Amino acid sequence: MSGLADFETTMAPKLQTLAKTLARLGRLKVLEQQASQLNLVDMRKLLQDVRQSSQDSGNQATELEELLRDYQLVAQETDQEEWMRVFVAECHALGHAVDGEYPTLRVFPVEVKVDVTHDLVQVNNRIVRVLHPKAVAALVSKEVAKRYKERFNVNQFLRALVRIYDVLMAERISTTLEQGQKNIARSVPLKQIYSLLSVRTGATGYSQNQFAFDLYRVRTESDLMFEGRRLVFESTRNASGAIVIPLPGGQKENIGSLEVVGVQDERDE
Asked: Could you tell me the pTM of the whole model?
């Protein structure tokens, strides 16, 4: 057996039946009271019920163990399509768009990686043992809400972008002059800026996806001015060389580079 439908139609009902049987075993907690009261009639009935329930639960557990031993959530392409269909529909119902292709997905600003080999899902850096697409969508939705509530220091991020831009521009100017060239491109690739920024922050602690989210927030929460200079983000059609920023309505923008322009320079043009 494989796939979500097989699990829900074959194993889920059996697991529910087992749960009900085990719930009956929970009645053992009243046995102590009956013993202290020397309630022989109820004790006999309860012990008979426990014996039968134990046999039933053992048989049910054995059957389910055998079924789960060979079960795979995704064994073929149709299983993968089924999982994606439910996950995307649930995310949409929760107000989130889904990007990417199975098994690596993005519900901005959260990355989701499905690892059926080890029966787990990675939500950003968090490992969860939850595989049902509806349950994963619910976890992702909570993580998205958490990210938007996190404190974001706009000026600190603007400062970091400008400082790294200046470092990269200084290197470019020096190289250009050494080569005897006069024209100096003023735009710096954002991925190059991210590379330096991630080194400062810690390569494993600051993902490109988080960088994209910070760009989204700084562009929506500020006027992009820092110390008399304006940050100008430039779009590109080259998705592979860009930072992808989702927009309201399900659209996306590919931001390729950054130019930092002095306000006086803008007036002189």
From this structure: 0.74
- Quote the pLDDT of residue 162: 95
Q: Are residues 163 and 248 in the same domain?
A: yes
SS (H, E, C) 118-145: CCEEEECCEEECCCCHHHHHHHHHHHHH
Torsion of CA 264, 266, 268, 269, to 10 degrees: 170
Residues 12 and 94 in one domain: no
| Full domain range(s) for residue 176 | 154-268
Q: Is the peptide bond before 133 cis (omega within 30 degrees of 0)?
A: no
Q: Which of 109, 125, 149 is the last residue of a domain?
A: 149
Closest CA to 247 of 233, 260, 258: 233
Determine the straight-line distance between the first and last CA of the chain, rounded to whole angstroms. 68
Nearest alpha carbon to residue 194 among 215, 208, 213: 208
**Percent residues over pLDDT 70 in the chain:** 94
